[in-house]
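ok trying again, last paste got cut off:
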Amino acid sequence: MNYQKNFKKQVLPALISLSMLPLYANVAVGETMLEEVVVTARKRQESIQDVPVAVTAITPGQLERGSITSSLDLGKLVPNVELHETAVGSESLSASIRGLSYDDIEKSIEPTVGVAIDGVFLASNSGGVFDFFDVESVEVLRGPQGTLFGRNTIGGVINVQRTEPTGEWGGKFEAVSGDESLTALKALVNMPMGENGGIKLAVSDTQSDSHVYNTTLEGRRDYKDSQTMSLSVKYDFSENTSAVLTYDDYDHNTTAPDTVFVSASPLGAGSVASEANDWKTSPQLLPLTATLEGENTTLKVTHNADNYQIKYIMGIMDYTEEVHEASWGTAAVFFPVDRDQEFKQTSHELQYISDLDGPMNFVAGVYMLEADSYITSGPVVPFTAYHSLSTTAVFGEMSYDLSEDWSLTVGARYTEEEKDLNSRSWIVGVGNADRIANSSDNLLNEGSPKFEDDNVSYRVVLQREFEKGMLYTSYATGFRSGGFFNRGSTDSELAPFGSEEVASFEIGMRSNPTDNSQLNVTYFNAEYSDKQTTVITDGNDPVCGKGTAENPAAQGVTCSFVRNAGEVSMDGIEIEAALMPTDALTLRAAIGTFSGDYDSFDYNGTDISDRARLLYAPELTASLVAEHTSNVAGGSLTINASFSHKDDVETQADWSTYDPATGPEVTIESFQTLDLSATYLKDMANGTLKLRAYGTDILDGGNRVGRRYDAGAFAWAELVPRRQIGVSVGYEF
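nice, full thing came through this time. structure:
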């Protein structure tokens, strides 16, 4: 389309002009002022304009009036961020920030982007897709956050805080109806518990059909069936000490869209959904289904004194994850998988946060994490694997005012960790009962590798205040833990890979040219060493170790493993701007540019850096949001329009064997989205009525490829949900 072809020539300059508008805005300010946003990017509450970190915050007002309903929607607004749900898994987040991504559900491999909910760091990406109905604040931190947030935050952190019990009667509910038989019911109730406590109960139920029509079944399969429940209790032991205990129970069921894109496969034309056949498909065999079922417990104890705060956070996650796959399209492409996984993590964090009157303030803490997972999978690739993780860290960060205008921040974190893997694999076709029993019959390989590592991450920031804002420069390091690839069936596949490290330099400006405008600019440059890369090859690959004369039965069997491929250099610019020309109108723009290349990529003694590419790393991301509020019929009507653009991204994993002339299509083309919503709020006798009509991705009437995947022998892809039109009604009291 013309708007796609001409985006860089026409739309991009317009967005850049808008981002610079606050510098030249000459509007009558009057009482019009942008809302002050408070964040906890440095473990303490601060105005976002005072924080020397590349952070974007989504306020409760933006969540209420816009089209940001889940963690997946954050990628529409935040520069250099790419988010989607993993293809194999339910409610599992694939997050990429500044070109650093992880797109799998294996618990033995660490994500590149950390997710924290109520202060609890998720040790895996399962459960990273969640609804924003009961959310107090959302922050997206870009760049390595190793000092305060620790391991596996080399890309950044998504930090989410839910609401706490109010100790008073109140609540809200919402009912949503949309295309593809979407229904969602959400409710939250607060109630007092004596004079010093409160209880909050939040529940939700979401169901929808597939966005792909099946002509054989003459309808759409089930797509989402999800239920959640959260019970939170808060008790004030004294004026200065309180505790919040939260229990979550969830049951998420997802059926992959009834579609497939396959290379080197005899599929009929009608079995593959495409734009040519109006995104319809015909297979009648069972598709991939994924389930995430479990419970979480969080305890947060806070003590406030005159000049310090002590906070203790404990988190327990315990869930099962199942994937069942009967067919990837037709009987000609049959790839059955029964994959059951149990996962549990327990974490403890103790923080000491100063609140001194002098020029110095600091944060110090201790962190501990234990995590275990057990998986059984087959019959195409039959294996069992038990994986355990133990990590301990101490950290601290100090800020000192050198003068009225200058300040210096230094911080460091020391981490020790141990990992163990016990893996057994069998020849293709071994039954589930034998795997669960760990029978030695038809055993192909077994191994018990170990991994140990320690790391020191640090951060140095020099900051200068000026009349309308501040400038800062920072140097930070971080690491992504090494480990194992537990799907392996040879010693080479199971061999430990090392930790990935980053050194990042950043220059930023945070400014408010006027009371009704804001302009933030960040430049970053990062160097990555021992970059971890997932490699998927034919089993005859010599590094893999399969397909040898000693193991002829393994010839041609897909081989997957992770290696420390080499060195990566990247840099980019991020611009975020806001302008409120009147009390009724707010404009926001964001632009992210990114450039990243492998300096070296060692593959079996050969440097393939000339063809290797970073995955899910768009060179350009941009967004523009316009929001207008007016008085209508005794209430307020807010019209919100949100436009976003993302450049092409690569999704190919095995650059050693990939031939663009003959290999599967692995590029997701650039695309634009436009979301529109109208939200009407009216005060009633006992609360506020909320009516909302919305349309998401309205520029695209059909589906769009959201994720491609090369499985070695063939490639497949999934489609993102199509344009959605819907309405909701809610009430808050």
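cool. The two ends are 47 Å apart (CA to CA). The first strand starts at residue 38 and ends at 39.
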